Amino acid sequence: MEKYRTCTLCEAMCGLKIEVNNGIVQSIKGDEKDPFSRGHICPKALALKDLHEDPNRIRTPLLREGERWIPIPWNQAIEWVARKIVALQQRYDEDAFAIYAGNPNVHNLGSMLYLPTFTRLLKTRNRFSASSVDQWPHQQVAFHMYGHQFLVPIPDLDNLDLFVIMGGNPLASNGSMMTAPDLRTRLKTIRDRGHLVVIDPRQTETAKLAQEHLAIRPGSDAFFLSGILRYFFENNLIDQGAWQSYSENLEALHTFVSAFSYAEIERHTQIPTVDLQRLAQRFAEAPRAAWYGRVGVSTQKFGATSQWLIQAINLVAGKFDRPGGVLFPNPAAPLLNFISKGHFDRWQSRVSKWPEFSGELPLICLREEIETEGPGQIRGLLVAAGNPVVSNPDGARLEEALQKLEFLVCVDFYKNETSRHAHLILPPASPLERDHFDLIFHQLAIRNTVKYSPPTFPRSEGSWDDGQIYAALACSLARLKKRPWKERLRLAYMRRISPARQIAWALKRGPHGVSMKALRENPHGIDLGPLEPQAPANLPKGKVDLAPARYLADLERMKKEPQPCAEFVVVGRRHLLNNNSWLRHIPHLTKGKNRMTLHIHPEDAQTLNLANGGLAQVSTQTGSITVLVETDTAMARGVVSLPYGFSDRAEPETNSLFAHQVSLNDIIPLAADACSGNAILNGVAVEIKAVSEAKNT
Ligand SMILES: Nc1nc2c(c(=O)[nH]1)N[C@H]1C(S)=C(S)[C@@H](COP(=O)(O)OP(=O)(O)OC[C@H]3O[C@@H](n4cnc5c(=O)[nH]c(N)nc54)[C@H](O)[C@@H]3O)O[C@H]1N2
Ligand SMILES: Nc1nc2c(c(=O)[nH]1)N[C@H]1C(S)=C(S)[C@@H](COP(=O)(O)OP(=O)(O)OC[C@H]3O[C@@H](n4cnc5c(=O)[nH]c(N)nc54)[C@H](O)[C@@H]3O)O[C@H]1N2
Ligand code: SF4
Ligand SMILES: [Mo]
Asked: With 50 as the cut, is the pLDDT of residue 696 above it?
């Protein structure tokens, strides 16, 4: 029997055709009839079978007693967690219990619907998520410029002729904040009919596909981007289109970008001024063009200011809200109605006074909030689908801090570097046992489409999905916290309404009037057409702020930025067959050549006396790791790259088979972009030296 669903492993939303026989997955292939992905999948999709069948996937709640893990029934586990939370909050205060929500929650309908309800009931200010080690700059810039944290303009990829990719490697990541299946074909098409430019310190797989690669010095994007805008202003290249009528503060933007001379910009970025000016001219003149920046731009020192300047470039060059430029999606289930517009700096973190964003604090302050004594100190934590020991800077020390907690509960089906320290693990159902609807990624997609995926398999006995877990926790918490009966009744009712029914309501009220019945009749999904102009009607305030004060103020910090010196800096690296910190134990994704290697330019390796295939020690003030060296001319001089997401500190059945697994974040110092609070994960200075084999053995 053939079953259809959307893959939930990354943001590309590929349609899957799953052949099932006697309750067993026979094959997973691309669904050619999916109107969006047209049959494309990547090798990771097959891991859904491995995950589903993995005998080491945890299937029952596990309570830790010393070294032993004791299986306990679900109702007992839920009650245990709720009682612990309430007792802790009564003994100390509400902030004593914290929550961290990891990346897979955005790929999980149940979590999307019920985790926020549970979180609100905690009434803690200590809320964290993977967003602050990832895309806070995008969300904050959207909030400050357009008025909603998820009003992010998306490249009209299938209709543009010039595309600039800065700090993203879609050929490995399959795209991010730009949902589009089969990016290789889509990017090749742009390259063949127009021009594709990649700005990245490494000549990535994507850069190799492009006509033009500019090897930028990590962390200097804000300088390059201000140079592009400077060129527009100086050369009368400011578009005179409709955007001007609803945008304000153009002059302030002009003043900001006039601060740095081309010579200064060239020294920071190490990109020749002629290349910058040629690209600026070409971009301004191209009728259909878009500038896109992703993780490498966001997770650096000037992440937010860089993302702001990217928006400004698209606006000022007349590419905003225009077919063939960047446009806002118009999803069938409007996410913007579900999620708050956002807010900023309503309160600050206790120890370092970081401003909150949309109710969350930067992940980089989790450790100090656990370790610093006093009222509001974190004593208990729930980790929902995440692995902060590996994903947050200075992970090894966070791991130590987590062990000081009175109470750690993890919602995860594996014992990763974080969950192995839990007092209780709540394991959700396998991804194939739950239904799915992409609430987030239709809001970030290059085309409006809609699809509902029913569960591929019925829920196995005793298996709960994430949504059920958080709904049950919310009900128990409300009862124990003696919340008003009306609220408890509402929660009990919510718990009984299936996610599919909630989606049906949202669709009915949505702009396309799609019904759940239509979705069930169209299991491959429905195409709703290309993105279309919507501004300014869709902007909450009806206008765009071209130069929010927060980013203008960042100029002072940029002026203090020292010129790059001879030192080495490290950047992270993703591989098509990895998925953040998980799936590393799936055999077909970890066979072949060891990918756990330090990429370094051969001439740099020679200077440092490093042999290809030898070992090197990479150090910062935070820590030291020993890695295999792989020389590669794709690296810019003075820049090395390491995969992110591995260590050998998970439980053995969850670890990969590669030798020399190390976690990059064990050496990344705990620091954030002062403007946004997002962690700085790229462009970090490192010392590198050769390790003799003899010493190592
Ligand atoms: N140095 C460096 N650090 C980085 C990055 C980088 O590029 N460089 N990238 C950052 C980015 S972009 C991100 S998003 C973060 C990610 O950081 P995290 O979100 O903290 O980590 P993940 O590896 O995504 O966590 C996945 C965990 O969730 C579990 N899981 C998977 N699916 C489900 C599910 O459906 N339900 C439940 N309950 N659990 C599930 C997996 O078993 C795994 O243990 O890391 C960030 N850290
Ligand atoms: N296969 C696979 N796919 C994934 C993931 C995965 O782990 N594996 N993770 C998913 C997640 S959570 C996310 S957020 C997305 C991320 O999606 P992408 O943003 O496409 O991720 P990366 O491949 O890390 O690309 C970041 C690029 O930025 C470059 N870079 C580093 N520092 C700088 C800098 O200072 N300036 C510039 N211009 N470039 C810089 C790096 O060399 C790298 O090529 O991928 C998602 N998809
Ligand atoms: S590209 Fe992403 S969504 Fe598509 S099959 Fe691979 S992991 Fe799944
Ligand atoms: Mo991410």
From this structure: no
